[in-house]
Amino acid sequence: MPTGPRSRVLAPWLLALLLVTPALTRAQQPPPPPDSSQQGEDQKPVTTLKVEVNVVNLFFNVKDKHGALIPGLVKDDFQVFEDGKPQTVKYFSAESNEPLTLGILIDTSYSQNRVLPMEKEVGADFLQRVLTKKDLAFVINFDVQVTLVQDFTNNVGELREALNSTRINAGGVGGGIPGMGQGPFPTQGTPKGTLLFDAVYLASQEKLANEVGRKAMILLTDGQDQGSQTRIKEAIEAAQKADTICYVLLIADRGFYWGYSMGYTGEGDMRQMAEQTGGRVISVGNKYEKLKQAFDEISNELRSQYNIGYVPTNSQRDGSFRKVEIKAKQDYKIQSRRGYYAPLPQ
What we know:
Layout: E1 8-9, E2 25-27, E3 50-52, E4 56-63, E5 78-82, E6 85-87, E7 89-93, E8 100-107, H1 116-130, E9 136-142, E10 146-153, H2 156-165, H3 196-208, E11 214-221, H4 232-241, E12 245-250, H5 254-259, H6 267-277, E13 281-283, H7 288-303, E14 306-310, E15 321-328, E16 333-335, E17 339-341
Parallel strand pairs: 8-9, 8-11, 11-12, 12-13
Antiparallel strand pairs: 1-10, 2-3, 4-14, 4-16, 5-6, 5-15, 7-14, 9-10, 15-17
Helix pairs in contact: 1-2, 1-7, 3-4, 4-6
């Protein structure tokens, strides 16, 4: 496990101490107090105007029936519905020039032993291609704990170094399967082995919730969680509240599970997480070329996003979940998050 100055363990007990996403509030600053020599009896008291506007921004991709990206569409090609009610589009952009904040979450549990080297190499090459000077990325690895290996930076060299520093947690003893909840780690309750849901929750809450603009999270994992304090529903909710797209590169070394006579069941949870947040699952198995192609597809999607903004007709600031649907007037598929959580009152 990396122990350098950039490493930080995000222990599960931090769940109670995480930052809360602030509401979208803009206040007009009051003018400076007038010069006392100019004050008269008709002086009116200075007032402060506070305006609260909840603008919902949706980043999305448009694809044809074969999965090819569709560029060049305009605002009138789309309709937006919130809880089934049509909304008026106020903002639209066909090109996303906003900064990108990207989280790389890499599974270092023992089940990834044979695929981690290619994940490091291909992941670093992807960051080299996709990041610009205005973008930021961070790296987290997860196994029996969640570790921030590299904090926000656009220095690809530092990000590559962080990926290369990750190691498989093979800490099992007593004949157990290393990294699968046996060995020197506490195993009260659910055994700890792969804190996948905790990693998504912490990345969303601690790193992405207070960022603005385009945000995405790329998970390199087989999708098997073991031992997280966070349930998948809570992990998805945290990502939705952080307005973060989750891409899952499903790197499942089935031979590992067959070798230990274990069933593999991670794909269903990952599809739920990706679909609810506007991303998708790309299954690459343990193939280098498939992993490279998957990163290429994500890169193209991040560069081809549309952006729609609207002020919801439901102005209640009650923290409730609102279902959102974008429809194209043509027969196209929309890849977007399924909804958002309304802000709470200040």
